[in-house]
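Task card 7
Instruction: Convert sequence to structure tokens.
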Amino acid sequence: MKRKILSVLLAVFLAIGLFPVTALAADAPNTLYVGNKSLSLVIDSYWTTENGSLVESSGNENWNVHYNPDTATLTLNGATIKGDNSATGVSYGAGIYAQGSSNQPVALTIELIGENTITGNYGIFLDAEISASNYGTNATLTITGENNGSLEVSGSFYGIFVKSGTGNASLTIENASVVAKTTQTNSGYAGVCVQSSANATGSPQLSLAVNGGSLTTSGSASGEGIEFYVGAYEATSATTSLTVTDHAIVDARTGGISASGVRVNPNVNIGSTGSTGGIVFDGTEGTVYSDVTLDESLTINQGETLTIPQGATLNTNGNLTNNGTIVNTGGTLTGDPGGTIVTAPAITTETLPEGTVGESYTATLEATGNNMTWSLDSGTLPDGLTLNSDGTITGTPTAAGTSTFTVTATNSAGSVSKEYTLTIKPAVVSVTGVALDKSALSLTPGKSETLTATVAPNNATNQDVTWSSNNSDVATVTDGKVTAVKAGTATITVTTEDGNKTASCNVTVTDAAYSLSADPSAIDFGTVKTGYTQPEAKTVTVTNTGNQTLTLEQPKADHFDIGELSQTELAPGERASFTVQPKAKLPFGTFNDSISISAASGSNEASTTITAQFTVERRTADTTDNNKDQTSSPQTGDDSNLLLWGVLALVALAGLICVIVMMKRKK
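Output:
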């Protein structure tokens, strides 16, 4: 028995080896059912449809269904496909059911040739959520038409159902005519549903794009024509979008369009890309997006409205029947569709001019359309102003400030609102004069100084001034900053913008000068005796007599103590001081020091000199001068005292020798 089983397995493996090897699309379905028939995912296969079921075909001209696993493309050629209208089984009873793999995206392209019909419990079901505990990522369904191929698809639940796993869900229809509906009459099911599963917890993107051709949908009594549904509480940043391009028409008049589910903005984003747009019907309200030329017939039924907004154009191309109302809110309509065509208000005034307290104010709001009545919808106009029914705002403002309000323009075709902000400026206070902080300036070439202008009164409305120089070769001025150019004189003038009030400053430019003076220039401390007490210090004042700021150096002297400078940085005309005092314990003699006072400004120098004199005389032995220090030894620097002490020492030594000699002789 075992040998028989092994033989069978070997035969199977050999048979598989005879099939051609096919490179499958990366995101091809892992399971594909068409009319309850499970298609091979590795073999290019052809089928005919008989009573909605698939019968394998040779693949020549006699086929209705073709699956190409290389591109994950299912081609329908005049096919009629039926599911089993039961939610049981792997395929959920869908006419076409495609399921992905765990942790993988799933994508399927359905190509239409001729007229095709699909029915089932679901019409088309693309499923990236395999089970409650096993799921893929993105789900992408694309339906394309060859030579305007068409498809009518219906389901007991959803006509077309695209459901993601952990990622995004998208449906794209390109150059095909698709009618999708649910056959439910009393349940909340949609003709088309694009849904993220309970496992898509991040920011799932749900999108539907119709690029050329048309999509017509209808929902159940309590369902939607098109529904975007977010299925997870954690999907806090889900986005939904419906895009129409290339003159496409999205018709969801039965059931409308909704975005629902958990934590999702209920507003569907309807937009268009590319150079042309399309038309979207959401319930009884239709809107033209961008530039549209009707390639297929379209009827506006009684009670329905098609709006052409500002920036959009509609060329009916002889294909529009108007039994309802066309409302033009600023767009362009070409062709004569007949019926009722009205121009609804479209406010064209973008901003309102500012006003001034105490001055009469008038502004007129403009809008397209006729016989409009204007009203204040919300907010408050500035005090003193009134919005009239003809759209004029008139009156005299009584208080400064900014007001925000909304106005509404209404006519028989509808109404439109717009928010405005109106600023009222304080009453104008005229300029009465202007003054400068300096009436004269003295500068050297290359130096600058800034003048400050004060406009009077200080609450004048217009504080702007202009500056000018009558001799820019000598001095220039920019925003009050005066810069000296060369020696000479110039007049700087400031002029107010309001009233032409002026003030002037005379500028004298002289070449740079670096000089110092000292007072007194000579100091005589008189004559004292040796052993003196220091005379009292005397103060010398140094003045910067040049026109440049100088940095002083600390003076020095040999026989005099020099005090610290009171300051080292001297602007022109400024003074600094220091003290001079004879040093203590100088020997007798006359001391004359020439004390140099130096300063620098960059590479430039200035200096002046003072003389200091002090005389010390030798003190005699019997002097009683009060300056003598009675307790001290003779000054080491007094030569006469040294000589006297030397003589006395020699005399004493000679006497001592004589005494010693005489004593020896007596012995």
